[in-house]
Specification:
Elements lengths: L5 H14 L3 E6 L8 E6 L5 E8 L5 E5 L8 H14 L4 E6 L11
Parallel strand pairs: 2-5
Antiparallel strand pairs: 1-5, 2-3, 3-4
């Protein structure tokens, strides 16, 4: 299966979010060809998650919360995101403010 470039995936997710009325903005532009993609989801009431795109054992991409299994506070989420960016400065970061905690990449 052909692998889509990160820049194309991000552009498609932003268009989908706009159509579904999900407040989603590009906070950091990464490497258009192969940059990692992180999503900072803010579901309100100090409920935050950082999602990262991972490759599973079957060769399929999935989204995993790298801040743990539950919601965390804003400072914890920001610290984890800063740590990831320091390791990979070519990463994309999207910020999603959605009370339902939706991920605009789930349909792509």
């Amino acid at each position: 299966m052909a692998r889509l470039k990160s820049g194309m995936l991000v552009a498609a997710a932003l268009r989908y979010a706009s159509q579904e009325l999900i407040d989603c903005v590009l906070v950091r532009r990464g490497d258009a060809d192969a940059g990692a993609i992180y999503i900072h989801v803010n579901a309100g009431r100090d409920q935050h998650k950082i999602l990262a795109r991972i490759l599973d054992f079957d060769g399929a991409y999935n989204w995993q919360a790298i801040t743990g299994t539950g919601w965390v506070d804003a400072d914890t989420a920001r610290a984890r995101l800063d740590k990831e960016i320091s390791r990979d400065p070519d990463a994309f970061v999207l910020a999603v403010d959605d009370p339902k905690g939706r991920n605009p990449f789930d349909v792509i």
